[in-house]
Amino acid sequence: MAKKLPKTDVVIVGVGWAGGIIAAELTKSGLNVVGLERGRERKTEDYFMVHDELRYGVRYDLMQDLSKETVTFRSSEKIRALPMRQYGSFLLGDGLGGSGVHWNGQTFRFLPYDFEIRSKTIERYGKNKIPDGMTIQDWGITYDQIEPYYDKFEKTAGISGEPNPLGGKRSSPYPTPPMKKSPAMQMFVDSAKKLNLHPYMQPSANLSEQYTNPDGISRAACQYCGYCERFGCEYGAKADPVVTVIPVAKKSGKFEIRTHSQVRRILHNGSKATGVLYTDVTTGEEIEQPADIVVVTSYVFNNVRLLLMSGIGKPYNPATGTGVIGRNYAYQVIKGNAVGFFEKQQFNNFAGAGALGVNLDDYNGDNFDHSDLKFLHGGSISISQTGQRPILNNPIPGGTATWGAEFKTNSLKYANRVISVGGQGSSMSFKHHYLDLDPTYKDAYGDPLMRLTFDFEEQDRELAVFLASKSAEILKEMGADRVDPLKELGPYDIVTYQSTHNTGGVIMGSKPETSAVNTFSQMWDYDNLFVVGASSFPQNAGYNPTGTVGALAYRAAEGILTYRQKGGSLV
């Protein structure tokens, strides 16, 4: 028998970026909020003087314990899914702040085209441009409608940047100036402009200067130490939930965080959520937390899994294309890159920051003509200087022996003579890419694991090679003596790291037949249940998702406050 606690106004499942933002906004408005986080407490002091690449970069200290909970994977329904036993393609964060602690800090706004992709594609190219089986759809919200929430998130996080010349209109400039431009980045800018492209400094959550946000949270400037991705920031210079929004919620006195709390079910009665059931992982005790409003803000896989295990929403059926929970899983095409080797020039590749780089969007979205191309959308192309840490970086030209004298010679020679230019490609949704509960494998609590069915399509292969060829052109203009571009994209590989940009499964839209939540992240069938995160994306754009997740969280918070006053559906 589960222990039943007193009811609270709002219970939040997962306290990362989305959960932290919503907790801050709701408590500022006087609501009592309980935040349930399955991992441990985190604070900036945990990372003081801990530049430990082995612990964090190789042994994944900030990540979820795969021996207790993981996902299963298969490339098609013809193959039996097997559990992911070691980290590879993506990294699942764990603990207070979630993946918002170990991210790089690249904070883009999606293009206006991204939010109306289906209608805009048909308008320009006709319906036949969308191949059979591709299930892209409009979000139900436009860029102009979501822009104010982008602006709010950027001001909270103190994003450093400059306007994207090919992006949507902005209501205000970035709150802090762009980061420093390294010599390699300047070479990229000069070469891109010679090719009539439009480079701009990447928008960065690594602060370019000391900053105090609208909530009064002050943070120091980035030190360019190169320990961002897979690491917590010892300076608090990298915006994460633990140093931005969570302190605001705590200060209100109306936010209670319970760590080590594994939420296993959303409780519901009829068309209302009534609370959640969770296990205290330190004692094994089952606890029921009633609430007037339930907000699910955990990682993509857990958002979908929790709804399916709770019997909320109609599960997606790939055979018929009906149902919405698990629909339109999408990833990212990261492998459209080229590597340039320089014989005479050297670069300080060891220095950097997670979001230090220059980007261009000439080949992103629908900024270029797709009439004669075998793919839709595109991707951003960038040069990034994240800091080449010694254990995980050993660049050598293609064709070099992987051991022996030649390997050693080239490893030393090219350690600081290599520049990578790469494309971050979009991921279009397909009917046969989806998430569901695995019928065989279970987690440490006896609940079914999330099953991922996905593979790269012809769309992805064409896009990757296209972006790699454009990246190679820029490197040649930069003066690289040798350029090794991607020649072919093989099958999706869950073993090799690519990105943690999993999306979809609880997608946003304008009607309940093809979406799970409305544009305020409110479930169509349960008006007091909100599901927020990249699980809302109907397909993925050519950017990192966090900026859009932050914007959706601010819009959801606004919707929750409206619902609290008026009730009912928000659209």
Automatic annotation (TrEMBL):
Oxidoreductase keyword on record: yes
Top-level taxonomic group: Bacteria
Positions in coiled-coil regions: none
Keywords: FAD, Flavoprotein, Oxidoreductase
Ranges for domain Glucose-methanol-choline oxidoreductase C-terminal: 437-553
Record region (Disordered): 158-181
Residues of the Glucose-methanol-choline oxidoreductase N-terminal domain: 221-330
SUPFAM superfamilies: FAD/NAD(P)-binding domain
Keyword Oxidoreductase on entry: yes
Entry similarity comment: Belongs to the GMC oxidoreductase family.
Protein name per Swiss-Prot or TrEMBL: GMC family oxidoreductase
Organism (species): Paenibacillus solisilvae
